[in-house]
């Protein structure tokens, strides 16, 4: 049974009226948003690590400048999202501490390694491609600050996807060795990219409530299907093969049939047992500890100024 307050809230959601920070909202709506936006913010920040790894090794000055700009964009996305989460009454420090203590998550995809330059192409093409597929509908999410952050982020994200595809085109049209690298990167990133959309709808514990509240607009499986349908022709254009024997156009459904990722592997990665979980968490811990003097200095400066004003 809904209380009158909850019913009025649901009416606003159903009428597509955005919820703003000072509006009444159910505790569970607030908690779900903090979880999702916080997890999303952490993903943008942790997501810098596998790519940052290649900034110094990009093959040309131009590629280096482009990758540097892209990785900086991810930092910016993290900041927009932390700000959106802060409007719900949590501080960025609390969110960071929840990440470092393992209470909060970040996207499974960033627990896979980037072994060579083709992987940077595959990350841009597939990982940013999957990210946009998920984020375009989130521009219409019911919480105002999240929705507005998504609008800005999506603009930059489409540039990221194109830069990844551009790397893949160069590699796929290059020497035999380069083409092999491109294929190998696709082989390794295909299923982890499909996992980005979350577990199958049957196993998605939050989807029903999140969709009723329009925090989520589409289901995990709907977005995964949309991603496969969009990406397969792009792979064909590159002359690369998607590593899935069952992949086949289904005329009747108007969609590709495809193999599910290995969900055991997915849940293991979520439990911290992916190839790079420890490395990523250590990277974040080190950055947080190394930055302590900056935070302390800023606090000391602010206190000094405040004291001077009083005097
Ligand atoms: N990884 O009930 P559901 C980027 C968890 S893009 C880790 O279906 P929900 C850009 C989920 O939290 C990546 N955990 O959950 C970039 C829940 O756990 P809990 C970030 C996952 O929330 C590109 C449990 O499984 N994008 O960073 C994952 O309704 C390149 C049950 O799942 C976003 O975060 C996963 N893949 O749906 C940056 C988008 N999937 O909390 C750098 C916003 C599920 O109960 C370089 N988020 N879980 O313990 C969303 O749309 C949703 O949160 C989903 C999951 C769709 C990810």
TrEMBL record:
This is 1,2-phenylacetyl-CoA epoxidase subunit A. GO terms for cellular component: cytosol. GO terms for molecular function: phenylacetyl-CoA 1,2-epoxidase activity. Keywords: Oxidoreductase. It is an enzyme of class 1 (oxidoreductase). Its EC number is 1.14.13.149. It comes from the Bacteria. One of its GO terms (biological process) is phenylacetate catabolic process.
């Amino acid at each position: 049974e809904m209380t009158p307050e909850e019913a009025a809230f649901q009416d606003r959601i159903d009428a597509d009226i955005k919820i703003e920070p000072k509006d009444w909202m159910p505790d569970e709506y607030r908690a779900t948003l903090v979880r999702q936006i916080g997890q999303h913010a952490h993903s943008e920040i942790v997501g810098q690590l596998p790519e940052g790894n290649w900034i110094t090794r990009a093959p040309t000055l131009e590629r280096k400048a482009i990758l540097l700009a892209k990785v900086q964009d991810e930092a910016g996305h993290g900041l927009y999202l932390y700000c959106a989460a802060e409007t719900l009454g949590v501080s960025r420090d609390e969110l960071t501490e929840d990440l470092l203590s393992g209470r909060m998550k970040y996207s499974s995809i960033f627990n896979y390694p980037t072994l060579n330059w083709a992987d940077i192409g595959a990350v841009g093409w597939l990982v940013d491609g999957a990210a946009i597929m998920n984020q375009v509908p989130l521009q219409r999410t019911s919480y105002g600050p999240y929705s507005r952050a998504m609008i800005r982020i999506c603009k930059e994200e489409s540039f990221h996807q194109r830069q990844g595809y551009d790397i893949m085109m160069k590699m796929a049209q290059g020497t035999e060795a380069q083409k092999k690298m491109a294929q190998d990167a696709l082989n390794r990133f295909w299923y982890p990219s499909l996992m980005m959309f979350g577990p199958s709808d049957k196993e998605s514990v939050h989807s029903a409530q999140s969709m009723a509240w329009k925090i989520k607009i589409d289901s995990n499986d709907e977005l995964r299907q949309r991603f496969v349908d969009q990406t397969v022709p792009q792979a064909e254009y590159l002359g690369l093969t998607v590593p899935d024997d069952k992949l086949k156009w289904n005329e009747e459904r108007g969609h590709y049939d495809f193999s599910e990722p290995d969900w055991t592997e997915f849940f293991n990665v979520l439990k911290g047992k992916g190839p790079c979980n420890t490395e990523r968490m250590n990277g974040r811990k080190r950055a947080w500890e190394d930055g302590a003097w900056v935070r302390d200095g800023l606090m000391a400066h602010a206190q000094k100024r405040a004291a001077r004003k009083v005097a």
